[in-house]
Amino acid sequence: MQIKPTVLALVAAASTAFAIAPAPAADVGVSVSVGQPGFYGRIDVGNIPQPQLIYPQPVVIQPVPVGVVREPIYLHVPPGHEKSWRKHCAEYNACNHPVYFVHDEWYKKTYVPRYREEDRDHEHEGHAKGHGKGHGDD
Known about the structure:
- The protein is mainly alpha-helical.
- It has one domain (27-128).
- It contains three helices and three strands; from the N terminus they run αββαβα.
- Strand 2, helix 2 (85-88) and strand 3 (99-101) form a beta-alpha-beta unit.
């Protein structure tokens, strides 16, 4: 089979265009973690004072199979997500978990400061044990 010169020219032009075209940008995302503004998701209440809840009872979208016990999870979600939880539960991988929604004010004024304090304490423990960044004895 013989390839016509015009087809070869089109293939060459296309490959040249791909070679000089800017590469698509890598996935650029913003990572927001617990304790930062804009974080929504699962939180560990641990030894933090009792959270202020939006609803007194946990919300469950998909029933848990008989014989399976799932501990409730605490979530900080954007306003309105708790009202249409059926629509949003998959985003949090929480449709088959009992979910307590925490108030945004409690998250900001109680949870975040306590979380940051504990995080800072863990960071200092690492430095005290010689795990600092180049500050140990050689």
